[in-house]
Write a structure and sequence with these properties.
- The chain is of the alpha/beta class.
- The protein folds into two domains: about 5-90, Elongation Factor Tu (Ef-tu), domain 3 (Beta Barrel), CATH 2.40.30; about 105-200, Rossmann fold (3-Layer(aba) Sandwich).
- It has helices spanning about 70-80, 115-120, 140-145, 165, 180-195, 235-240; strands at about 5-20, 20-25, 35-40, 50-55, 55-60, 60-70, 85-90, 105-110, 125-130, 145-150, 160, 175-180, 195-200, 215-220, 225, 235.
- The strands form three sheets. A seven-stranded antiparallel β-sheet has the order 4-3-7-1-2-6-5. Strands 11-10-9-8-12-13-16 form a seven-stranded mixed β-sheet, with helices on both faces.
- It is globular and about 50 Å long.
- The chain starts with a strand and ends with a helix.
- The mean pLDDT is about 95.
- It binds flavin-adenine dinucleotide.
- The site of flavin-adenine dinucleotide (FAD) has 22 residues, from strand 4, strand 6 and helix 1.
């Protein structure tokens, strides 16, 4: 288990890369394995809790997070300017396993946030991205993916349709996916039929991030599990065949 630390970081940038979607860059020597996350806070007592965000990217002296504005916490994050501080607790969670062979990464919407570091660290993976609106950060993914296909519902910036329309598991040894539950369930059906191992990263409302409060418990084939400590990455059959 990685040593978890609570540290302050100074904001280097917080750019809106699509309407309501921000790339937050913070200075510091942070660590994370692909698929791990940090609990993030840039306020004192209100709201009370940190918010979980996947480590989007790491480079020497910098960590970044890609997040969508959903409610109070992410709205406060979106107002951060360079030079301001935020608190980071992590790295947390299990992260993606070492790929067993030919790997496909499939992301829907903000689920792409959990995949960039995997594409960069594992290398040689094909990446499939789906967006409800105009695609974002496609060029960043193109630089680290072996192959890249992009779908958007309007066809703007990619092929028209859903990511499940452009992804087929045949030829892969494993698939790692993050996105809305219906997307994950559809990918699981395709991977099960093709006999391809699927790992999914789950997003649940989370309070402590440390496994103490049980607030993020999901029911799996092997009983209740905490997304923060036992996940966020699970074998698909654990979750969908429960
Ligand atoms: C392990 C993990 C990693 C995550 N990584 C990212 C990431 O990289 N980028 C990103 O944009 N988001 C990510 N999320 C989701 C993110 O944590 C929530 O969007 C955020 O906590 C919402 O906080 P808020 O205060 O803005 O909204 P709140 O006011 O708390 O809620 C606003 C709305 O968002 C919904 N919501 C709140 N928390 C979650 C959640 N955890 N999952 C799904 N819906 C939620 C609520 O039901 C509500 O409808 C991750 C979640 C987990 C558990």
């Amino acid at each position: 288990m990685d040593a978890v630390a609570l540290r302050w970081a100074v904001v280097r940038g917080n750019a809106e890369v699509a309407p309501g979607v921000f790339l937050l860059r913070a200075e510091g020597a942070f660590r994370a394995r692909p698929g791990q996350f940090y609990m993030v806070r840039a306020w004192e007592r209100d709201p009370l809790l940190f918010r979980p965000l996947s480590a989007f990217d790491l480079s020497p002296g910098e960590i970044s997070f890609l997040y969508g504005v959903r409610g109070r916490g992410t709205r406060l994050l979106s107002r951060l300017s360079p030079g301001e501080e935020l608190e980071l607790l992590g790295p947390l969670g299990n992260g993606w396993p070492e790929p067993p062979g030919r790997l496909a990464l499939v992301g829907g919407g903000l689920g792409i946030a959990a995949l960039y570091l995997a594409a960069k660290a594992f290398g040689g993976a094909d990446v499939y991205l789906g967006f409800p609106g105009r695609p974002f950060l496609v060029e960043a993914f193109r630089e680290v993916a072996a192959g890249l296909r992009v779908a958007s519902e309007s066809g703007e910036g990619g092929e028209r349709g859903l990511v499940t329309d452009i992804f087929s598991p045949e030829g892969y040894d494993a698939c790692y996916a993050c996105g809305p539950r219906p997307m994950l369930a559809a990918i699981w059906e395709a991977c099960r039929r093709a006999g391809v191992a699927l790992f999914v990263s789950l997003e649940e409302r989370m309070a402590c991030g440390l496994g103490a409060c049980l607030g993020c418990t999901v029911f799996t084939k092997d009983g209740p599990k905490r997304v923060c400590r036992d996940g966020p990455v699970f074998r698909a059959e654990e979750v969908f065949d429960a």
